[in-house]
């Protein structure tokens, strides 16, 4: 009695290899596209997080502007350069006065857009000069637009940022409680 041997013929193996090769070529074409889309999505999410963090920092500063637990004189908020530079004062240590620019406890703060970067400085009463600190990473993020518009005690904050090919705009309304 002879037992039939089970297995694939040479022709069946060649067909299976051809089908497998076609599938591998198809997958090879779509993999770079998937990786590129994944990179774009990661950039967009990181851009959104960066702009939200910057926006939150600016909103807190704008809400604090004008706070004083005593007799403070001078403007609490100054918008310069078409709103792309914001100078603020608030009584951070609650001692009843705004410490001047020359003091180590100065209550003067500034935020400005310069060369595609958002910058901040404490103890500043002008949008010019050196010593400003970047709040953004120029290797990843470029701020294309920063603007604050005052409408009474309401402030409108506009931020537009770019990371690679991704661009995102954020707008927030802030109530200046102490203005």
TrEMBL record:
Transmembrane segments: 14-35
Cellular localisation: Membrane
Family annotation (InterPro entries): N_methyl_site, Pilin-like, Prepilin_Pept-dep_B_prd, T2SS_protein_J
Principal place of residence: membrane
Membrane topology listed for this record: Single-pass membrane protein
Pfam families: N_methyl
Keyword tags: Membrane, Methylation, Transmembrane, Transmembrane helix
Protein name: Prepilin-type N-terminal cleavage/methylation domain-containing protein
Naturally occurring in which organism (per UniProt): Pantoea rwandensis
Source taxonomy: Bacteria, Pseudomonadati, Pseudomonadota, Gammaproteobacteria, Enterobacterales
């Amino acid at each position: 009695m002879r037992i039939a041997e089970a297995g694939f013929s040479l022709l069946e193996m060649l067909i299976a290899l051809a089908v497998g090769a076609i599938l591998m070529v198809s997958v090879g074409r779509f993999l770079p596209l998937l990786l590129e889309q994944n990179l774009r999505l990661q950039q967009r999410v990181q851009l959104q997080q960066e702009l939200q963090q910057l926006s939150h920092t600016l909103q807190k500063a704008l809400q604090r502007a004008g706070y004083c637990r005593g007799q403070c004189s001078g403007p609490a908020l100054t918008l310069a350069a078409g709103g792309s530079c914001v100078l603020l004062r608030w009584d951070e240590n609650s001692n009843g006065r705004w410490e001047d620019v020359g003091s180590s406890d100065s209550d003067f703060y500034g935020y400005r857009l310069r060369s595609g970067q958002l910058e901040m400085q404490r103890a500043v009463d002008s949008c010019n000069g050196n010593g400003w600190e970047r709040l953004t990473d120029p290797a990843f993020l470029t701020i294309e637009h920063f603007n604050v518009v005052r409408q009474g005690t309401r402030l409108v904050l506009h931020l537009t940022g770019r990371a690679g090919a991704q661009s995102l705009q954020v707008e927030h309304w802030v109530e200046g409680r102490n203005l």
